[in-house]
Amino acid sequence: MANHKSALKRIRQSERRRKRNQHVRSGMRTQVKRFRQAIEAGNVDQASEQFVGAERAIRRAAIKGVIPKRRADRSVSRLAKHLNLLRQNA
Q: Residue ranges of the domains in the chain?
């Protein structure tokens, strides 16, 4: 266990950040999962709605520093590619 006040504060800060990061990452994964389920179902309208939510969650995670910005860009790009394929086939 930490002995210095600064180390104790660091532990508190780290725990707060860990919980925030966990919450943001979990929400992002949930949104992406809903989008993928809509894609598998073949529902273009629902997939379009879910894409907006997934993109928003991914971008928010990148802004908060939970994931790197380039990973967010890559993830959104891949999701958009799946959505466009579904629109072409429908």
A: 18-89
- CATH fold of 18-89 reads Methane Monooxygenase Hydroxylase; Chain G, domain 1 (1.20.58)
For the stretch 22-30, contacts whose Cβ atoms lie closer than 8 Å and that sit 24 or more positions apart, written own/partner, are 24/57, 24/60, 24/61, 24/64, 24/66, 25/61, 25/66, 25/67, 27/57, 28/54, 28/57, 28/58, 28/60, 28/61, 28/66, 28/67, 30/57
* pTM over the 0.85 mark: yes
pLDDT in tens, the chain (90 residues): 788 999 999 999 999 999 999 999 999 999 999 999 999 999 999 999 999 999 999 999 999 999 999 999 999 999 999 999 999 987
